[in-house]
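User: Batch of two.

Assistant: Item 1 of 2:
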Amino acid sequence: MADDLFKALADPTRRTILDELAERSGQTLFEICSRLSMKHQLGISRQAVSQHLAVLEGAGLVETRREGRYKFHDLNTAPLQQITERWLVPDTHRS
């Protein structure tokens, strides 16, 4: 799982998508594409954004839900918490 997470975070476009979902979770593919284009001047196709979202979903960082014909993408920070807890060491050297 950690390998998928680090792979997902390694790409700057995917980090930008996560930033956008952190700012406003529950966006459709169209909304994400629009924000990437307008706010970040990224000329990226819907198909490429879909592929990035699939990698993020595979890493557990994005969850999807369907409402009618719309598919919404939500940020899930739980995998990040698991990574930080993995190497979190209690501070035992304080005086």
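Item 2 of 2:
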Amino acid sequence: MDGHEGRRWRVPPKVVAVKCAAAVAVGALAALSGGDSQRLLLAGAAALGLAVVALRDLVAPVRVAADREGVTIVTGYAGHRRLPWDAVTAIRVDERRRMLLHTRMLEIETADDLHLFSAFDLGTDVHDVADDLYHLRARTTR
């Protein structure tokens, strides 16, 4: 990170491509449902849901960006919120193990909100992003 004014973490293009391809494939399944209204309804709803998620990734691919002044995070569907470093009360990684699943989420906390990001949102391991945010924040708040 040294030598950079700021950092950005985004949804990987491959993940976006998979979501788009899945929306098209499920949409084709809906079109080929052969007049079965239940299959058409379910496949159509799934295709629409996948398309909405893929569209968000296309419209707002950068989920977290940080620089000397603070951090910008995606909020809602595709909005952005700028947080100065003094508004960020905590940066941490939440890890949970349930059955065979192991999840890690980056948490960026403010006085009134908690923002969660996964490795799929950031394109890299959440521990690495947390470390980069810690270091950038420490350099700018001295």
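The radius of gyration is 19 Å.
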